[in-house]
Amino acid sequence: MKTSLASRGAALRATGPVLAAIAVSAFAFTASATEDLNVIGWCDITDPELNGPFEDAFDVRINIKTHEDPAVAQTIIEQSAPGDWDVFHTDATLVATHVEAGLLAELDPADFPLDDIFPQVLRRDLHFVDGKLYAVPDVFGWNTVAYNSERVDAEDIASYDIAWNPKYEGRIAVWDFYVQIVQNVGLAMGLAPDEITMDNLADVEARLLAMKQNVGVIGDIATIQTALATGDADIVLGGGQWIVTGLQEENPALDWIVPEEGGIFYLESVGIVASSEKKELANEYVKYLIGAAGQGRFAMNSCGMAMPANSKAELTDEERALLRWDLKDAFLEDSYINHYYDQELDMAMIDAWARFLQH
């Protein structure tokens, strides 16, 4: 089902080991000191601890523009001059859409450790188009419910029904990303993401509007994360491990859960922009991001920690425990990959979300 990118865009506003890991590639390819690599991606690709070792090894500067929606990012790339962008960090479920738009370059599978990628997230159906590889998965995680365990009852947080529990009036923060929250509400109603249709959207909207009285904060990622950290909210709908893992050292009471109705898992992927004039360098960067050393740093990024796609990611036992490494299979089994909709349904969701914000 083709995604309505135009409507979505309109609606949304330790160096040593890493250097050793990429030393062979560095000898094979060199970049001048003034070389730049332009990346557009989610905020977790911006961490200097992630990019610094690559920049040092290749004597290159990585320039990054962040997005919170790959649809918006696609529009930016389409409206830019050829060669302006080199690497596109996107959502796996939209890779085929980007390929259809001519935005991604074909990759050589032999360049990447595909055999080391967790099979549940390799998703050849998403990353290969007509038998050709166009992007590789890098990190994944869950958009479910985050909460303060000292201020929320354990029996309540087990279900999405907590969002309508009058006990928590004014104590819920909601991520201002309509697709995600509509899907969470759908799960509360027993609807998988791909089961939401024009026929039942009115029922989903009614349930969404009924939740508004409990909502105290609606905002972007930084806003809802801050609300949870400061106590302005005790529950974040649409949040997950990426909301709390960077905050737990200061406040161990912050936690996240995959409710009994299931979760939504996101899968981020990275590819090379078709019009890039620096495809060799871009390819080295993607190889670094997917390699064991890069994956360890990617997983522990400062924007929001996430599970690495590479099973051999270099992580300590403590870091794996923080990411709930041993529970990933169970969480994936109980979750649905995020889903995008056709233009008619997408526009209807945007209208429903606007009514929710104004309610």
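Above is the first protein from milestone M3; the second protein from the same milestone is given next.
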Amino acid sequence: MFFVGNNIKDEYKADIKQAVQDGNSIGMHSMSHDANKLYKQSQFIPEMEQESKLLSDIVGKKVGLIRAPYGSTYLNNDQVQKAKADKFRLLDWNIDSNDWKHKGKPQETVSFVSQELDGFHKISPVILVHETEDTLDAIPALVKAIRAKGFVLEPYFEDNDFHLNFKKDPDL
């Protein structure tokens, strides 16, 4: 699954379309990634509506899945209600890989995630990673560590009946 945001440039549009054709899900991550603008100035929904249209035009179907910058915790009630009205789905995470903290040390990301996975037995882990060179370097070892813990990597599709958001709202 790939969440894209303000990096939707013309040169990436073909890659986004191909990712969906290859069976991957695409989600929205905002146009600005600016917490003040999104949450305090209430631009979250307008940005998601703009991005949904842009991505839907690229992939040829409605895109309604959101990974809110900094998590859905910061959404106010009005934003939650509008997201529901727009039929957006929020997907947060239950393991932050901290890859953004481990610059130049991809093995630290792998070790951290591996330790975090020890606490997961009855619920599915959703691991947050970012698009950095270090994370890319860590992916093979991350996959190996995840499988070694007995987990199966599966794609996420918007029509899955799987809900994980910090609001604990099954309608999102």
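Note on the second protein: The radius of gyration is 16 Å.
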